[in-house]
Write a structure and sequence with these properties.
It is globular, with a radius of gyration of 18 Å. The protein has helices at residues 27-35, 94-107, 121-130, 151-165, 185-197, 211-221, 239-248, 268-277, 281-292, 303-310, 319-326; strands at 20-22, 72-75, 81-83, 87-88, 111-113, 139-144, 170-175, 201-207, 227-231, 251-255, 295-296. The strands form 2 sheets. Strands 4-5-6-7-8-9-10-11 form an 8-stranded parallel sheet. The protein is built from 11 helices and 11 strands. It starts with 19 loop residues before the first strand and ends in a 17-residue tail after the last helix. By secondary structure, it is an alpha/beta fold. Bound molecules: NADP nicotinamide-adenine-dinucleotide phosphate (NAP).
Length: 343
């Protein structure tokens, strides 16, 4: 079991836009970064630091050698560092998730996003064990469902998820939806706080929380969530939510970051910028998230897309390009309304 996390009542730190750090996929670098307290980590702007360390070792885990550029990590409020890109696993089956995790590690991914609701935590866990990397070089994120909103219920949800994943600790444990009609998410957060104290999780988060939900959590528990995972892409840019997160030191992690790979990737503005950079539309959209300081968890199980989606740290977008992509916003109403839906 990991030692108990310190500073549960951490005041918010502003690290999202400038708190990225080169972690690369080098086991040595990743371990060293994880051991270092967040307050001692020097901050670097992602992808733009010419001194950013590149991996040159050539062992079997040196997948980053094939990833152009480096993978930054974001400093989280409770002291963990989280890779800025991870692999989404919904709607993979157990078997698909197992192979995707192994292929993902090979391609350079270190963060894997799952949930009780995806029904594939066992497959993700099998992939983590099969990938050949030690546990501490991997970052596992999962989420509890509405039936576990509550202090004791959250402890139970952790035990069940940890058993299915086959891990002793979970790097990031999130509440999947706030379900305000049930009005139990604040108690569930208290439960996540206990898991932090016990060293069973390294970071805690909301998912699909609106600023009003997060504000209640902070005011009533004194806990600042490390992250909030929300639906976010150029069709749904969530400006108010991102501003609230930044003001409170909460990392924004985007789900459906490439809009499920559908019409968003055919937007003329995105296609034109992709041509100018000789990149794919998916890479341009994912880089747009990075420019905004967000973390991303694109899903794919195709090897060529695993490589494509992570190769976004060796180029940048100009401010006018970021603005042109942000102008595709269709407004808050385009996102799922978490006051109404969820599970
Ligand atoms: N917190 C929540 O409530 C919530 C909700 C939904 C999702 N999530 C998480 O967020 C992750 C990502 O969201 P998402 O899967 O809904 O959407 P997404 O990542 O935006 O899109 C995934 C889709 O795009 C395709 N795709 C992937 N890379 C591509 C590329 N380079 N070019 C073209 N198409 C590409 C994939 O197809 P192939 O697989 O065939 O490549 C898949 O159909 C999920 O896997 C899950 O882990 C969280």
């Amino acid at each position: 079991m990991r030692p108990a996390a310190a500073g549960l009542r951490n005041t918010a730190r502003h690290h999202q836009s400038d708190g990225t750090r080169d972690i690369s996929a080098s086991p040595a670098v990743w371990r060293a970064v994880q051991r270092r307290p967040a307050s001692h980590v020097s901050l670097k702007r992602s992808g733009r630091d010419p001194s950013a360390q590149r991996v040159t070792r050539s062992n079997s885990h040196d997948a980053v050698a094939r990833v152009r550029g480096v993978i930054p990590a974001l400093n989280l409020t409770h002291g963990a560092q989280m890779p800025q890109i991870g692999l989404g696993t919904w709607p993979m089956s157990d078997d698909e998730a197992e192979s995707a995790v192994v292929a993902g590690v090979e391609a350079g991914y270190r963060l894997f996003d799952t949930a009780y609701a995806y029904g594939n935590e066992e497959g993700v866990g099998r992939g983590l064990r099969a990938c050949g990397l030690p546990r501490e070089e991997l970052f596992v994120a999962t989420k509890l469902n509405g039936q576990w909103h509550g202090y004791l219920e959250a402890q139970q949800a952790w035990s069940d998820s940890a058993r299915r994943l086959g891990v002793e600790y979970i790097d990031l444990f999130m509440i999947h939806w706030p379900l305000p009609a049930q009005d139990r998410y604040v108690e569930a957060f208290r439960g996540l706080g206990r898991l932090l104290e016990d060293g069973k999780v390294r970071a805690i988060g909301g998912s699909n929380f609106k600023p009003a939900h997060l504000q209640r959590v902070i005011e009533e528990t004194g806990l600042v969530p490390d992250i909030n995972q929300i639906e976010l892409n150029p069709h749904t840019i969530r400006e108010a939510a991102r501003a609230y997160h930044a003001d409170n030191g909460i990392v924004t992690q985007s789900w459906a970051p490439i809009g499920h790979g559908r019409e968003l990737l055919r937007e003329p503005a995105i296609v034109e910028i992709a041509r100018a950079h000789e990149r794919t539309p998916a890479q341009i959209v994912l880089r747009w998230h990075i420019e905004l300081g967000c973390a991303v968890i694109p899903k794919t199980s195709r090897p060529e897309r695993l490589a494509e989606n992570i190769a976004i740290f060796d180029f940048t977008l100009e401010p006018d390009e970021v603005a042109a992509i942000s102008a595709l916003d269709r407004g808050e109403a385009h996102a799922d309304d978490s006051d109404v839906i969820g599970h």
